[in-house]
Amino acid sequence: MIKTFTQDDVIRYVYEETSPEENLLIEDALMSEPDLMTFFLEALELRALMNKIEREPRVSTVQSILNYSRNHPSNPPTRQRQL
User: Fold this and answer.
1) Which of 7, 57, 66, 76 sits CB 3.0–4.6 Å from 61 for a disulfide?
2) Per the record, which residues fall in region Disordered (predicted)?
3) Domain range holding 60?
4) ∠ Cα 32 1 22 (to 5°)
5) Measured between alpha carbons, how far is 35 from 62 in angstroms, rounded to an integer?
């Protein structure tokens, strides 16, 4: 029986979610199916580009979270001890 690999299989391969046995079969399929190889190369490029993305929340968002935390009922203000 010949196994037909899909783009989903290639994505699993790109993210190293396949077994060693599956890797060999997928690699053979990539060598014999130009469309699958093209998809594989595009998936590798997209993965590399996505790994470069750095996201940060806006300062106002962080400030809102901190304000909420300070004023939350389960977090009463700290009382200073009198000596």
Assistant:
1) 57
2) 64-83
3) 7-71
4) 60
5) 45
Residue 69: the pLDDT is 87
Question: Residue 20 is inside which H or E element, if any?
Answer: helix 20-32
pLDDT at 40: 98
d(CA 36, CA 44): 12
Mean pLDDT by runs of 10 across the 83 residues of the chain is 86 96 96 96 96 91 91 68 56
Contact (CB, 8 A) for 5 and 32: no
What residues contact 43, with CB distance under 8 A and at least 6 apart?
Answer: 10, 11, 14
Judge whether 81 lies within some domain: no
In a domain, 62, yes or no: yes
The answer to whether position 77 is within a domain reads no
